[in-house]
Design a protein that fits this description.
Elements (H helix, E strand, L loop, with lengths): L7 E9 L5 E10 L4 E5 L6 H9 L9 E4 L2 E2 L5 H4 L1 E5 L10 H11 L4 H14 L15 H14 L4 E5 L7 H18 L2 E6 L2 H7 L2 E6 L2 E6 L1 H6 L4 H6 L4 E4 L13 E4 L4 E4 L6 E10 L4 E7 L3 E7 L10 E6 L10
Parallel strand pairs: 3-8, 3-9, 6-7, 7-8
Antiparallel strand pairs: 1-2, 1-4, 4-5, 9-10, 11-12, 13-17, 14-15, 14-17, 15-16
Length: 335
């Protein structure tokens, strides 16, 4: 595990491109040493621009500052910031084999050959790719290429590791497997990492904290649980997972919620006997998903709710069901 971790402070970091496009509003953000931060949001929200500013690939607008461990690195070029980068496109050298790709950054830094060999061997072992060391890049699968890209980025022992949608090009099963491996790797290294994705599951799995972005701004910062259970605005509530909306006046036996719009997750409502119910509905659609079943339920003359649970009973379309809320899980957005 890395002992000396790097904290990052961003001060008024905005970005306006030469054509006048405003990609990023002025952002302030503090990242703890050894923390994994995920920048999450839809395409065009500014997350990759922010990552490139941290890396030194883009300059912030005038007045913006990037601080590494209280050192102002705003004017330092990328090669002097000692950051490692992993891209969606891998960005590996096709004319070099796996071993040469991993050692490239060390060679550029003019390390002794024996040290380079030792470090490369360490990376091959860490990423479980010893048997690929002499393979050409075009002989590797997507998952293998991504492991090589990670090994190359980590080999130089960067202060900060930056990952820009590194799993997007992979199939779903491989994405899930590598997600687990990356999480384990980051925990073992104890390195400060910033991970860009538009995938909510990836963000939830990897982030110590998630920075949800929209339209060049930060919408909310929090742990995965905070973001999921306590969204602070409409955008975060809608973007993270599935959310239902219902008026308090539609819920029986909960008069205190009259006049309020309530949000809740599909798993926070259960099917009960009528006498215990808050709401009665009719099953419109049922989807058996293996580990859970998703029901779409009509209530109140056409309004819909989505439910998810481990329902062993099969619910027939058109059948009436009675629902009860987990009241503690109802979300009321701040005004």
């Amino acid at each position: 595990m890395q002992k000396d971790t790097t904290s990052i402070e961003l001060i008024s970091c905005g970005k306006t491109f030469k054509d006048g496009t405003r990609a990023l509003e002025k952002i302030n953000l503090n990242i703890n040493g050894g923390e994994t931060i995920v920048l999450l949001g839809p395409s065009g929200c500014g997350k990759t621009t922010l990552l490139r500013i941290i890396a030194g690939l883009e300059e912030p607008d005038e007045g913006g500052k990037i601080i590494f461990n209280k050192e102002n690195v705003t004017d330092l070029q990328i090669e002097k910031r000692n950051v490692g980068m992993v891209f969606q496109s891998y960005a590996l050298f096709p004319n070099m084999n796996v071993k040469e790709n991993i050692g490239y950054g060390l060679k550029v830094r003019k390390l002794d050959k024996n040290k380079i060999d030792d470090r490369v061997s360490e990376m091959l072992e860490m990423m479980h790719i010893n048997d690929l060391s002499l393979r050409r890049i075009d002989q590797l699968s997507g998952g293998q290429r991504q492991r090589v890209a990670l090994a190359r980025a980590i080999a130089v022992r960067p202060r900060v590791l930056l990952l820009d949608e590194p799993l997007t090009a992979l199939d779903a099963i491989l994405r899930d497997r590598l997600r687990v491996e990356i999480d384990s790797l980051l925990r073992s290294l104890g390195i400060t990492a910033i991970y860009v994705t538009h995938d909510q599951s990836e963000a939830m799995a990897l982030g110590d904290r998630i920075v949800v972005m929209s339209d060049g701004k930060i919408s909310q910062i929090g742990t995965p649980r905070d973001i999921y259970y306590h969204p602070q605005n409409e955008f975060v509530a809608d973007f993270i997972g599935t959310v239902n909306r219902i008026l308090g006046s539609d819920i029986k036996k909960l008069d205190s919620l009259e006049g309020k719009e309530l949000l809740f997750r599909p798993e926070d409502i259960e099917i009960v006997e009528k006498k215990y119910s808050h709401l009665t509905g009719v099953v419109k659609a049922s989807f058996f998903l293996g580990e859970k079943t998703r029901l779409i339920v009509n209530y109140n003359a056409g309004e819909q709710l989505s439910l998810e649970g481990r329902y062993k009973k099969e619910y027939v379309i058109g059948s009436e069901i009675h629902l009860r809320f987990n009241v503690d899980s109802l979300i009321i957005l701040p005004n």
